[in-house]
Design goal:
- The chain is an alpha/beta fold.
- The protein has a single domain (2-175), classed as NagB/RpiA/CoA transferase-like (Rossmann fold), CATH 3.40.50.10420.
- It has four helices and eleven strands; from the N terminus they run H-H-E-H-E-E-E-E-E-E-E-E-H-E-E.
- The strands form three sheets. A seven-stranded mixed beta sheet has the order 6-3-2-1-7-10-11. It has a two-stranded antiparallel sheet with strand order 4-5.
């Protein structure tokens, strides 16, 4: 039954994202900037290139001195690669998502200190509803125990309760 409820919630959150497709990412980026400044020992940060309806993080990369890594879909997994310049080191990849080009250095998921995770919706308890393929959940289960997982979203994507199942990975912090 929870899979049916999860799918209904996913459809509703997609509708909300469509209505709010022109949302401004600036306020969320500023909140993330403050959060990352509180983590001076965090060296490697996994980010993403936004799809429509997701917070665009581009205003963050030049303002925070970290090693930025980005995912690339490989089969059923996400692999991370160090990117120094998103304007020249990214290309359209799986599902139309901007991904690192092929010749970049791969970084093991266990080396990542902070994950910035997109999603369709979140709750304040760290529940995250993704797009349904499980890429982030599978990858986050391999991360080191002290890696910090940030759910990144617009305020309208925060709901009272996200429907979760056993394999879903909770976020440590939700920023929206």
């Amino acid at each position: 039954m929870s899979d049916v409820n999860k799918q209904r919630q996913r459809e509703e959150l997609r509708r909300i994202a469509l209505v709010n497709h022109a949302a401004d990412s600036g306020a969320v980026v500023e909140k993330l900037l403050q959060e990352l400044e509180r983590l001076p020992d965090a060296r490697v940060v996994a980010a993403y290139m936004a799809l429509p309806g997701e917070v665009d993080l581009r205003g963050l990369f030049d303002r925070v001195n970290k090693d930025w890594v980005f995912p690339r879909v490989r089969g059923e997994n996400l692999n991370f690669y160090r990117v120094r310049n998103i304007d020249v080191e990214m290309q359209v990849g799986a599902f139309g998502i901007m991904e690192p080009i092929d010749r970049l250095e791969e970084v093991k998921v266990e080396e990542v200190d902070v994950f910035l995770c997109p999603g369709l919706g979140f709750d304040r308890d760290g529940g995250r509803l993704g797009r349904g393929r499980g890429f982030y959940d599978r990858m986050l289960k391999q991360s080191k125990a002290d890696a910090i997982k940030f759910g990144v979203c617009f305020p309208f994507q925060i709901v009272d309760k996200i429907v979760t199942v056993d394999h879903d990975v909770r976020m440590d912090v939700v920023v929206g």
